[in-house]
């Protein structure tokens, strides 16, 4: 066989191998990429952590998918469209699992408590709020329940037992100060703080920050990490089939790293209180 024929065969072979290699590499799915679903500030945090040196050291490859509502995100996680989500409180997680017919979630670990606060332009302490005062509280059931627990923790009211994550004003057992409650859209809380008809208002941390408030400095009373707030601690969650996934659990190591916590504390002015507790703590064990 002539030298020219051999060269032609060799060239053809290289072309075929190169084409096969190109097709294979371009059709190959991304390996070891964790899709984290999140919302608002949590999405911002995970986008930052995904690019961090700590993520590289842990060999974590993260893509963040932002959602506009928690229910859709939990469903997407349960169905496997999202690997892990980081946005919700343990109480919200429990409520979803109780109602869901599309699959269940499991909590991988705790992240933070974002304190709900009682604010007032008129009074410096919850003890100063007079009898008959009007207190504004979110009308959303989950937020209303949380707000009432905070008022009970402050010693202002007592609640019926059991008191669930979606219970509301009807479960107030005793109101010795004859407070009047005005149910509001939580997003208006910052504006109502300056309303003369309102004596105190309960405002979530995300809303208070948007209003230029810091719950640790401006609230007259706020949540702390204790047995009353266990259901309000945020978690990282995934579908039940992933409960023992070691790579997903490394996300907790990433979140709890010193560099991550330094960034979070600086960006959110210390208002996302880190919680390093076993899931059994949230379950009340």
TrEMBL record:
Pfam families: Lipoprotein_9. Coiled coil: none annotated. InterPro entries: Lipoprotein_NlpA. It is a lipid-anchor. Keywords: Lipoprotein, Membrane, Palmitate, Signal. It is found in: Membrane. One of its GO terms (cellular component) is membrane. Belongs to the NlpA lipoprotein family. This is Lipoprotein. It comes from Leuconostoc fallax.
